[in-house]
Amino acid sequence: MDDITLKKNLLSNKIDDLNNHQLLVSNVLNNISSIKIFMEHHVYAVWDFMSVLKSLQNQICPSKYPWKPNKYSKNGISRLINEIVLAEESDEIANNKFMSHFDLYIQAMDEIGADTSKINKLINSGLKADTNFSSIDIPKCSKDFISTTYKMLLMNRLHITAALFTYGRETTLPKMFTNILRVVKNVKNTENLSIYLNRHIDVDSSRHGPLSMKLYEISINDDSKKQHEALDAAIISIDSRRKLWTGILKAIKT
After folding, report:
1. Non-local CB neighbours of 45 within 8 Å, separated by 6+ positions
2. How many CA atoms, within 13 angstroms, populate the side-chain half-sphere of residue 121?
3. How far is 196 from 79, CA to CA, in rounded Å?
4. To the nearest 10°, the Cα dihedral for 205, 209, 214, 217?
5. Smallest Cα–Cα separation from 216: which of 225, 227, 205, 207?
6. Helix (H) / strand (E) containing 127
7. Under 8 Å between Cβ of 192 and 104
8. Alpha-carbon span 242 to 107, nearest angstrom
9. Sheet strands (E) in 24-146
10. Cα 112 to Cα 212: distance, rounded to the nearest angstrom
């Protein structure tokens, strides 16, 4: 069995293990107190997802002018990433009501009385791509998660970012969010959180997941070295998510 097959199997096993994390398969999120803690930690992953997405957009269809065509404007990948950005940054949440999924999540936090002061302070603190998050006052597991994300984004290599996006987010989130929704939908004042979860389950499963896989395959372009590096990045992203879930579970139990 070659190294690429071994890494693919390892990645698959890690994703299965992640989907069976106790935070997801237990009923620990069956009350407002636990959901508040979950959201106050998870919101940073909601936020840094947009940085992953915008990094892809900047690499594939940069917003510079004078505009020049590139290989992505010729092969449809520009359309692919712009379609995902449109939904994530300005989704139609209700009839003629448009907002980003991050803003919807903040609205959901306000709905249940979760603390949004730290995330708001973070996003208004003059962040840069190479920001060191170590001294920022946010939960440690959340800090470790976004630090891992930004470390990979700083490489500015399409196949690395595509692996982070595809396996760390789009194709993995629907099953995790389905397990979370199963519990939280029965708790009062979680309507907006349920809308957020449902939108990702629906859109990522039916459209964004398959699109992200197409992006991932094109970014590798049958290059063995890139495939090894992309699989390593995907494995790191799954391990990072598991550590985040473990940190949140520990905070809830404490």
Report:
1. 142, 145, 146, 241, 244
2. 8
3. 24
4. -130
5. 227
6. none
7. yes
8. 26
9. 91-94, 97-99
10. 32
Neighbours of 157 (CB within 10 A): 17
* The pLDDT of residue 1: 59
Q: What's the confidence (pLDDT) of residue 135? A: 85
Query: pLDDT at position 134, please?
Result: 84
- 99 beta partners: 91
Q: How big is the chain, counted in residues? A: 254
CA–CA dist 49, 52 (Å, integer): 5
H-run or E-run covering 149: helix 140-153
pLDDT level of residue 236 (50, 70, 90 thresholds): very high
Distance of CA 240 to the CA centre of its chain: 11
Decide: 212 and 165 in contact? Cβ < 8 Å.
yes
Rounded to 5°, angle at Cα 22 from 6 and 179? 90
Amino acid at 87: A
**Do 187 and 31 touch, CB atoms closer than 8 A?**
yes
Mind listing the pLDDT tens digit for each residue in 32-48?
999 999 999 999 999 99
Residue 41, token pair as written in the block: 């930690």
Best mean pLDDT range from 89-98, 136-145, 203-212: 136-145
